[in-house]
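HUMAN: Spend a minute on the protein record below and explain its fold to me.
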Amino acid sequence: MSRLNELIQSICPNGIEYKNLKDVLSIERGKRVVKKQLSEVHGYPVYQNSLTPLGLYVEYNCPENTAFVIMAGAAGEIGYSRERFWAADDCFAIVCPSSICSKYIYHVLLNEQIVLKRNVRKASIPRLSRDTLECLKIPLPPLAVQQEIVRILDSFTELTAELTAELTARRKQYEHYRDELLTFDGSVKRMALKDVCIKVQDGNYGKEYPSKSELLKSGVPLINGKAIHGTICKEALDFISEEKNEELKKARIATDDVLFLNRGNIGETAYVPSEFDNCNIGPQVTLLRANKSKILPKYLEFALHSKDVRNFISRVGGGTIKFLSVEPIRQLEIPVPPLAIQKQIVSVLARFDTLCNDLTSGLPAEIAARQKQYEYYRDKLLTFKELER
């Protein structure tokens, strides 16, 4: 970073001007397209209300290397496209003059994203006002300084992108081996979950279930569907009192149970570690307690992600939010080889699972560490002494 310091000292030693976004560049609202105009095969990506393209369109209205802001839906999300794209009406493109580097503005907007999201109106559709974006005050150093900052920050994001691409490849590899290892010939018996589990029970307590007023900021964890994402996400837990936890008995979980999401993202699972022993679950979650004389708990969890189970879940009907009641879950069949074979399968898949999903030691942990490193240096590099007038 010595080159950056040298540039600042030689070009702008007295400080940097801070200006409102609207005073230094153009913020252009996109133009609406409808789904029937889009393709899944040919055209340019269309950004509307998220950073995931809505589809492809035959035309583009933004050139390559353009930053943009999502103003409704995923309001406050910041994007950057290396290719031409179509900005729809909830996507505002950032059009920079030759004196401003678009990628620099992208990094600046990411650094100020917390300000933008703080001003999102929480209605039925979250929205960010144009005025909030236009009046965002940003540091604007000379172009050479902007470009050097971009060079440094891109070195972090490129490494993160490489790790993310590797993680995607590893997850595909993991899914391939999981399907291979969980596909058996007719010699391996298929058994219903009710026959290999000593308990299959959802957390549907009816009137006994805690009301909003009984939920606490700390206490005994209450595991709802929002906390099930391949593991139990502590940040998404609700809490209840010891007394309320004692009232709820029929779906009390224990160490080595497997939790199965029965609503929304049906089939997502989490393994219960000892720290959640004797806690309770919500109605969106079903507990599966393995009969260890027939099935290993970790094998049970892996088997719930087999191709056959995924195909079964894909056929589940329902309204806006899909739901699977406890009885079809009890009847769900999985292959159950001898315990020695189960142990071998668990040994192989657990290594892949740690590499792909462990937030403390696998690739996700390394990606998270690189992201924190990027954010630290981004904040440091984009903090300037303001030029006195």
Remarks:
- The longest helix spans residues 143-181.
- The first strand starts at residue 18 and ends at 20.
